[in-house]
């Protein structure tokens, strides 16, 4: 019995240390992030690239198509690298489903939150409105065509995305950002920038889809 108790104690301590290390890593990410002030809000100037929630618990990684579909169908949080390539996340950040973006444990670092639909609208209005905001928000380089002016330092890169049950698509040509605002039980609002268009478009998609995340200071 004593040996079993010791093993259980070691196991619990290991879990606690792992959670603390994950939480510390999340805090380090918060200290390292680039920010930009647009209008009255302070935004991250880079896409979110974390694998743990704020409390240190891991966000499940979808390592293949079936993992991704299973998570979405169960309304569970998941993240992935574009084309399952970690090098992509180093440049563009990770892709998350809506359930990860809105999980009550919090995916954003302490003091931050994932942007709502209203906050995306406020950002767009601050740079001239949806008709011209795309050009002003896109980075000056990195797009296959139609690089932007990056007028306010938002530095939007074309990370691409993935559908709820379909393949990866759009890297180099689109930047797609979840909002935390639902349109219906299974659909939520998002924003998208296109390489060949000047606008900043508000659209809706299945919550199982995988898009980039940007955060706003609390």
What does this structure look like?
This protein is of the alpha+beta class and 218 residues long. It is built from six helices and eleven strands. Residues 1-29 have low confidence and may be disordered. It is globular, with a radius of gyration of 18 Å. Strand 9 (187-194) and strand 10 form a beta hairpin. The strands form five sheets. It has a three-stranded antiparallel sheet. The protein has a two-stranded antiparallel ribbon with strand order 1-2. The longest helix is centred in the N-terminal third of the chain and has 31 residues, at 2-32. The chain has one domain (2-217).
Features:
3-stranded antiparallel sheet; two-stranded antiparallel ribbon; alpha+beta; 32% helix; 218 residues
Structural class of the helix and strand makeup? Answer: alpha+beta
What spatial order of strands do you see in the largest sheet? Answer: 8-9-10
Quote the average pLDDT. Answer: 90
Which runs of at least 5 residues are low in confidence (pLDDT < 50)?
1-29
Secondary structure: elements and pairs:
Elements: H1 2-32, E1 35-38, E2 41-44, H2 65-73, E3 79-80, H3 86-92, E4 95-96, H4 98-101, E5 112-114, H5 117-126, H6 130-137, E6 161-162, E7 168-169, E8 174-182, E9 187-194, E10 201-206, E11 215-217
Antiparallel strand pairs: 1-2, 3-4, 5-11, 6-7, 8-9, 9-10
